[in-house]
Amino acid sequence: METALGMTLKTLTKRRKNQKTIRVCDDCGIPLIWTFAFDYKERYCLNCGLSGGMFGTGTDKPATRELVFKQKLVNAVWKIIYGKKGLVPKSSQRCNCKKCDNSSEVHYQHLTKSEKEWDIIAREHLDIVQGFLSESNLKEL
């Protein structure tokens, strides 16, 4: 015989599996990115620049087709900005870097010339894309 608590937990678990949600920005409603690119800001909004920790930033919304499409769009843009040649986190070490392996300093402190150039371009474009995903701009597309 199953207890009332056990039955309740089973019901809640079934509901969570069936209901897909997407975490969106509280300010503009655009899906948030999950990233470790910024210190203590695991969630980031490409549209308005809102960022915050993994807990309490954004709101979970039911995954409608439109919201799933927006999430794919945001992830595609982020993949370009944060790709191999792009934004470099200012506070982490990088794999396959001999300088990172042999020291305690973060990778950003000893970037190559090429990495510096790509990082500058990525940070400029991070500012450029803000506002691009607003409702009015998406309706024009």
Summarize the structure in words.
It is a single chain. With 141 residues, the protein is mainly alpha-helical. The protein has one domain (20-140). The protein has five helices and five strands, in the order H-E-E-E-E-E-H-H-H-H. The chain has helices at residues 4-18, 65-81, 98-101, 113-128, 135-140; strands at residues 21-24, 33-34, 43-44, 51-52, 59-62. It has a three-stranded antiparallel sheet. The chain has a two-stranded antiparallel sheet with strand order 1-5. Strand 2 and strand 3 (43-44) form a beta hairpin. The longest helix has 17 residues, at 65-81.
Helix/strand layout:
Elements: H1 4-18, E1 21-24, E2 33-34, E3 43-44, E4 51-52, E5 59-62, H2 65-81, H3 98-101, H4 113-128, H5 135-140
Antiparallel strand pairs: 1-5, 2-3, 3-4
Low-confidence runs (pLDDT<50, min 5 residues)? none
> Strand percentage, roughly?
5-15%
* Largest sheet composition: 3 strands, antiparallel
What does the average pLDDT come to? 77
Provide the number of structural domains. Answer: 1
Rg, Cα atoms, Å: 19 Å
Separation of the first and last Cα atoms: 57 Å
Structural class: mainly alpha
**H and E string:** HEEEEEHHHH
Helix share, percent: 40-55%
Number of DSSP helices?
Answer: 5
Q: Which shape, going by the Cα principal axes?
A: flat
Query: Using DSSP, what is the number of strands?
Result: 5
